[in-house]
Write a structure and sequence with these properties.
The structure holds 2 protein chains of 2 kinds. Chain A is mainly α. Chain A has 8 helices and no strands. Chain B has one domain. The chains are: A mainly alpha, B mainly alpha.
Chain lengths: ~190, ~350
């Protein structure tokens, strides 16, 4: 009996956090609003009975990924954003786009889903059930997703690593950067 | 049990546990000062009360009455929120920690009311994902430290906050992986079931293949998670003044300390529950003793780990930052993964 009010309250918090995320000017406030969105989503999963998914949502999204977001904002010392007027293209294409998208989603939901309300606790909760779904019923999508993530990690490694030539020069103990023209000029003058 | 009784018992248990936890936090500061003094051949606090036992109380009063400075350069909302976040998440995780078997009180009379019989677990709430909840809550605790460093708007604080968040995110992975063998063996995330699986001296520390290894991986990463020596780089005095809480004073400063020591208590509780059989130990005597004795064993084991924290702090020097990161990613993480694979094979072979 307490489930529905709680579900509504967390839903409202979630939407409020999402709106605040867009309205706030400072990146760190936006990031923290996103943490609120993640956490209230976890509460929604919990209320639906998916306790494992809720815990993972908090550990992975709110606890790890968002910490990295905050970390990067702190590291770059990103300042306040300036509000722009917004482009006319966005106004002309975006508003109808949102309207059409919303109508499409609503229509699909109304037409193609059974109208029975989702029961509280209907989602697969215990880790064993989730594991069965992941490694048995949805094995192929699971593996494909993990390969996708692997590719992303490899991409990050390639982008972050030093080029081969520089590594070779480092090993030989030579300077890693080509001297700039003005540096050469200065050196020449001194000589 | 009716819902009213349930609510009343839960409230009583919550208040009692929070009181005990906060007292334990205050007295672990006393323990730290006393043991560190012993190790350095000093006396430590002796003036307030016998053996300086009232020192935590005096410290608390002092913290409350000190001037609460809020510097002009800080980003005020987050500067005030950061210590609150740190303390709240540090204290919340105790809610799912079980201390003993169950409290059984036979029915008794108070005036004309009959109370009980009451039978309730030694735990605020028993959830089937208790371990995950603790991991989730401790992972949220990073925000307190990170935001304190950022909102203070000072170089030392920012460096401390950055170091803390990087360190906590990195070591969390090794910590989580080192706990998975324990979960696989018990087949559950419930802390109660994990302890029940260790009956008859089959403590995970001795019983799991490389359980010792898993325990040390857990202990090392937990020390890094709680920012304690040898991994206390976020507040390295010699380079960062005091790290993320440089710009804090009075009770806000004390709140960071409370959070740190409450986190230490949680880590000690988890080490006890997951690797050393929790409240399991010899139980004898009349019914009331059988009810209390497990809690005594639990507290004894937790006390040992708190002592270990202090002992390690005053024995080992601090790591360098690159050593810390290299150790976490290149040594602890592969060890934890290898250990996980061995444990999984062992459980599959026994099944």
């Amino acid at each position: 009996m307490l489930h529905l009010p709680l579900f509504l309250i967390f839903g409202l918090i979630c939407v409020a956090g999402a709106i605040n995320l867009l309205v706030q000017r400072h990146p760190i406030n936006s990031a923290l609003s996103l943490v609120v969105v993640m956490a209230s989503l976890a509460a929604e999963y919990l209320l639906l009975g998916a306790e494992f998914v809720a815990a993972v949502q908090v550990i992975v999204y709110a606890g790890a990924i968002m910490v990295l977001f905050v970390f990067v904002i702190m590291l770059l010392n990103a300042g306040e954003e300036e509000h722009t007027k917004g482009s006319r293209v966005a106004l002309l294409l975006g508003v109808p786009g949102i309207a059409i998208g919303g109508v499409l989603v609503a229509w699909t939901l109304l037409r193609h889903s059974n109208t029975a309300a989702v029961q509280i606790g209907a989602l697969p909760g215990p880790p064993k059930e989730v594991a069965r779904l992941l490694f048995h019923d949805f094995l192929l999508p699971f593996e494909v997703t993990s390969i996708l993530i692997l590719i992303a990690i490899m991409g990050a490694v390639v982008l972050a690593s030093r080029p081969e030539a520089i590594v070779r020069r480092l090993r030989r103990g030579e300077p890693t950067q080509q001297p700039e023209k003005h540096e050469l000029a200065v050196a020449g003058k001194e000589r | 049990m009716s819902i009213t009784t349930y609510v009343i018992i839960s409230i009583i248990k919550s208040v009692a546990v929070i009181f005990v936890l906060l007292t334990a936090v205050a007295y672990s500061v006393w323990l730290e000062r006393k043991v560190s003094a012993r190790i350095q051949n000093r006396w430590g606090p002796t003036r307030v009360g016998p053996f300086g036992l009232l020192q935590p109380l005096a410290d608390g009063i002092k913290f409350i009455f000190k001037e609460d400075l809020i510097l002009p350069q800080v980003y005020k909302p987050l500067y005030i929120a950061a210590p609150i976040i740190a303390v709240v998440f540090a204290i919340t995780s105790i809610a799912v920690v079980p201390f003993g078997n169950s409290i059984d009180i036979p029915a008794f009379n108070v005036g004309r009311w009959t109370i009980g019989p009451i039978s309730t677990p030694w735990q605020i709430t028993d959830v089937n994902i208790g371990l995950l909840i603790i991991l989730g809550i401790t992972s949220m605790g990073v925000y307190g430290v990170a935001l304190a460093g950022w909102a203070s708007n000072s170089k030392y604080s920012l460096l401390g906050g950055l170091r803390a968040s990087a360190q906590m995110v990195s070591y969390e992975i090794a910590l989580g992986l080192s706990l998975i063998p324990v979960m696989i063996r018990a087949g559950s995330f419930s802390l109660r079931e994990i302890v029940d699986a260790q009956r008859h001296m089959h403590w995970n520390f001795f019983y799991l293949p490389f359980g010792t290894l898993a325990f040390f991986v857990y202990l090392i990463s937990a020390y890094a998670e709680t920012n304690r020596t040898p991994f206390d780089l976020p507040e390295a005095e010699s380079e960062l003044v005091a790290g993320y809480h440089t710009e804090y004073s009075a009770m806000k400063f004390a709140m960071f300390f409370m959070a740190e020591y409450a986190n230490m208590v949680t880590v000690a509780c988890l080490a006890t529950l997951l690797f050393f059989g929790g409240w399991l130990g010899p139980v004898f005597g009349p019914a009331w003793l059988q009810m209390l004795l497990p809690v005594g064993w639990f507290c004894l084991k937790v006390f040992f780990f708190m002592f270990l924290y202090v002992w390690v702090r005053w024995t080992l020097p601090r790591f360098r930052y690159d050593q810390l990161m290299a150790f976490g990613w290149k040594v602890l993480l592969p060890t934890a993964i290898a250990n996980l694979i061995v444990a999984a094979l062992w459980v599959a072979w026994r099944a």
